[in-house]
Input
Amino acid sequence: MQRTMLLFVLSICVVLSVSAAGDAETEAEASADAGTVNIYSHRHYEVDRQLYAEFSEETGIEVNVVRAGADELIERLEREGDNTPADLIITVDAGRLNRARERNLLQPVSSPRLAQQVPDNLRDEEGYWYGLTSRARVLVYHPERVNADELSTYEALAEPRWDGRIAVRSSSNIYNISLLSSLVAHHGSEAAEEWAAGVVSNLARQPQGNDRDQIKAVAAGVADIAIVNTYYVGLLGASSDEAEQEVAEQVEIFFPNQSGRGAHINVSGAGVTRHAPNTENAVRLLEFLTSAPAQREFAAANYEYPVNPEVEPAERVASWGNFEADQLNLGSLGEYADEAVAIFDDVGWR
Ligand code: FE2
Output
């Protein structure tokens, strides 16, 4: 009887630990063996799963993954403190990794392989996190309604000529928060606020949907330009849905600020948690994920840019051409995130 009761209590604990992360998907119960690495991940791609399986095969280290939104995972790490089973947190934005660092949830790690495989501007200066893939936040436009000559910079999107012509998702989205943070970093908050107000007054419709929906809005004639991450154009182009392929065929990509500071980029990346039970395994996994073979798989599957300079982007991505990336340290995106959120609120970018 007591044993039944104990099992009952244990099963409640398991349910609680899963529901505490909202719709988190626990693929295996996290544990802290020498032969294990436990990941909290905001990435939701099949290629990640494949790479973890390959890592396990190569090293014998078992990989456990809990998937949920980045904010949930950060909160969970905070709540668990030194009892956390998590070794590595993976997010799709440097801003979130910086937030985790600021809250003292990460530890610095380094290795000669990581130093070689991840360029300086795509990792934390002190090794608190490393980029796994990178992406640019670019413009897509409809070539029948916009001439590429008319496009230049993010800044120019605030000009009156774009009145009623721009589609972009909501300001709660971290990609937009990071973009505005970069404008605060470059121009100061006053100029960034003027810019955001200008863009709001040029919107074709109230912000809604995700990046894919903005590209579809341009194809459908709802807007003439959209601000989106590069890989969504690749994903639509490679979609099994013909209508989505057509959407991708109708739009062109423009990399802004090419005669100035370069296009805004970001990374999806990973940091080893401060209380990781399996630090060494976590570093090995980071080394594996940034190695040339794994980077090739990332690049082919998702149309993101590899961080490892040895690896070329996928053919579809290469066809968009080379571009200059903003060299702003991605660490500073987190620094200005709160300010960016306040600006979005002030200008009514919902
Ligand atoms: Fe995304």
About this structure: The pocket of fe (ii) ion is lined by residues 92, 229 (CB under 6 Å). Strands lie at 25-26, 36-41, 62-67, 88-91, 130-141, 166-167, 225-229, 252-254, 265-272, 305-306. The first helix runs from residue 2 to 19.
